Every structure is written in structure tokens, then in C-alpha cells.
UniProtKB/TrEMBL annotation:
The lineage of its organism: Bacteria, Pseudomonadati, Bacteroidota, Chitinophagia, Chitinophagales. This is TetR/AcrR family transcriptional regulator. GO terms for molecular function: DNA binding. It comes from Panacibacter ginsenosidivorans. Residues 28-47 bind DNA. Gene3D superfamilies: Tetracycline Repressor, domain 2. Residues 5-65 form the HTH tetR-type domain. Keywords: DNA-binding, Transcription, Transcription regulation. PROSITE patterns: HTH_TETR_2.
């Protein structure tokens, strides 16, 4: 990795929690310099503008969450156990530093839906990928006779994502995890009901 690439990566990693907590509009150049300890010139010597930093940071935040969940899913063999990773991770999100400022998909989607087309596209692609991943786990479970054959993969995926993101939003707004835990307990029961 070149010095320039290392500096870019440093900027992304240091500003990732700032963008995730404050959003694109709420993150100032001062926030970026404070988080990195770098000058404006150093930041803009590595990125064309704040938009470019924000897009790179979204990718980083999203990939961090995805890699974390994927590793836990792949550690399980049974499709139901794999799906149970979701309520387990999100129920305990405060344990994970990269989730403490919120879900990057939710945070980005709610802010960028009308204000930042590039971020909105990234969030939409991330949601579509997540939905396909859940659907594929369900299809795998049906094929292996671990999940009931009449289970609708798309329906389960949409409900799973909606429960997680809706409950996460409530937890972030209220500062309490009560609703999140209720929703994740319900999601766990729903997933267990899919068992063959």
C-alpha cells in the first residue's frame, strides 16, 4: 500500500463513525480535521471533496458490518442458525463499536433519500444485496430441508430487514434498547417458526 493509499484509508477509518453518527449534511470539514488530526489540505489532497469522502466512508462502514455478520453466518451450518445471527447481532449492537453510531444503511438512507443521489444509490444497493443474501439463506434452507418448503424467501427477507431497521431506528431515537430487544425477540421466534 502506498503512502497515499494509507493516508486515504486512515481518513476513511477515522471519519467513518463521524459520518455514520452525524450524516453527510451534519459532518463539517472541521469534524473531518478533528477526527483525523490532518489539515484541510491533507484531506482534500487525498479526496476531491466531501462527497468523495462520504461515499468511501459509506462503503467502509457497510463492508465492516457485512464482513462481521458474514463471518458469523458462515460459522453456522444450519440455515435457521444462520438467520438467527441477525437478531443476535442487532440485539447486542452496543457491543460492537462500528454499530454504536447506528446502522450505516439506515442512517444513510434516511438522510440521503432526497438530498444525496450517490449515497442513496449506495444505500439502495446495500439493501438489495442484504435482501438477496437473506433470500439465498432461506432458499438454501428449503433445499436442505431445514426450512419449511412453503416459506416465501422474499417475504421473510423484507420482514426481517424491516424489523431490524425499524427497531434500530427506535433505539437510536429514544436512546433505549427496549423496543429493539422486543423486536429482536419477535424476529427470533419468527425465524424459529420457519424450521422444518
Amino acid at each position: 500500500m502506498s503512502k497515499s493509499e494509507r493516508t486515504k484509508q486512515f481518513i476513511i477509518e477515522k471519519t467513518a463513525p463521524v459520518f455514520n453518527a452525524k450524516g453527510f449534511a451534519g459532518t463539517s470539514l472541521n469534524d473531518l480535521t478533528n477526527a483525523t488530526g490532518l489539515t484541510k489540505g491533507s484531506i482534500y489532497g487525498n479526496f476531491e471533496n466531501k462527497d468523495e469522502v462520504a461515499l468511501a466512508v459509506f462503503d467502509y462502514n457497510y463492508q465492516t458490518v457485512t464482513a462481521f455478520i458474514k463471518a458469523r453466518i458462515l460459522a453456522k451450518d444450519n440455515a435457521v442458525d444462520r438467520l438467527l445471527v441477525y437478531p443476535d447481532v442487532y440485539r447486542n449492537y452496543l457491543k460492537y463499536p462500528f454499530l454504536q453510531t447506528g446502522c450505516p444503511i439506515l442512517n444513510t438512507a434516511t438522510e440521503a433519500d432526497d438530498t444525496h443521489p450517490g449515497l442513496r444509490e449506495r444505500a439502495a444497493a446495500a439493501l438489495a444485496f442484504w435482501k438477496r443474501a437473506v433470500e439465498n439463506q432461506i432458499k438454501r434452507g428449503i433445499a436442505r430441508q431445514e426450512i419449511k418448503a412453503d416459506t416465501n424467501p422474499a417475504e421473510v427477507a423484507v420482514i426481517l430487514i424491516s424489523l431490524i431497521e425499524g427497531a434500530f431506528m427506535q433505539a437510536k431515537v429514544t436512546g433505549k434498547t427496549t423496543e429493539l430487544k422486543i423486536a429482536m425477540n419477535y424476529l427470533e421466534k419468527m425465524i424459529l417458526s420457519l424450521k422444518q
